[in-house]
Amino acid sequence: MVYALADRGAQLLRERGEIGLSGIDWGRKNLEAGRPFIEHQLEIADFEVAAQLSAERSGYHYANAEDIVSKSLAAAGLYRGNPFAFGVTVSHQGARHEIGLVPDIAFAIESKKGAQRNFFVEIDRGTMPITRADFSQTSIERKLRSYLSANHSHSSSEDSAGSSFASCSSQATTVASGR
Q: Is residue 146 part of a domain?
């Protein structure tokens, strides 16, 4: 069974200061959410719960996206929109492509000694093609190349400590990760 936030629930959360979203017709929004979207959201939640439990059982601290934002961007007054959305330039067959990325999950794992690793995760349920003839269309290859390019750019900068990415596909057995 899946529950979704409705108008009265959103109003209650706003009144309690839990969310700042206003002007959204949650009832209509819920009706527009189709089965593929809901299944994707559930898989994202499953992954995040599994990652958190695994980290904590292994003696590490798990920081979700909100924890990361509250520690850095929000504290500096810089939080606007999705702080994990970014653009990257990818070279493919002699052409440069500007690609926007918004990871499904952003989290960090912190050791007892304070060392932190940051992760971006993309969840694919086997619905995205592995490759396409037109690189301007989304594909697993394009996303992986984009994250590799972003990781390479970030690794070349002074602020590269602790960056990683992971890409998961629930219907294929391949899991890729990079440092």
A: yes
Task: Tell which residue, 134, 136, 167, has the closest CA to residue 150.
Answer: 167
What six digits make up the tokens of 16?
Answer: 């309690």
What is the count of structural domains for the chain?
A: 1
Q: For strands 105-110 and 116-124, give the pairing.
A: antiparallel
In 34-169, which ranges are E strands? 61-64, 86-92, 95-101, 105-110, 116-124, 165-169
The answer to whether residue 4 is domain-embedded is no
Does any domain span residue 51?
Answer: no
pLDDT at res. 175: 44
Among 53, 56, 177, 64, which residue's Cα sits nearest to residue 122?
Answer: 177
Question: For residue 156, what are the domain limits?
Answer: 59-178
The amino acid present at 82, given as its one-letter code, is: N
- Dig out the tokens for 49 from the structure: 């719960």
Tokens 């992760």 -> residue: 119
pLDDT in tens, 120-130: 888 888 888 99
Q: What is the pTM of this model?
A: 0.71
Residue with tokens 């970030």: 154
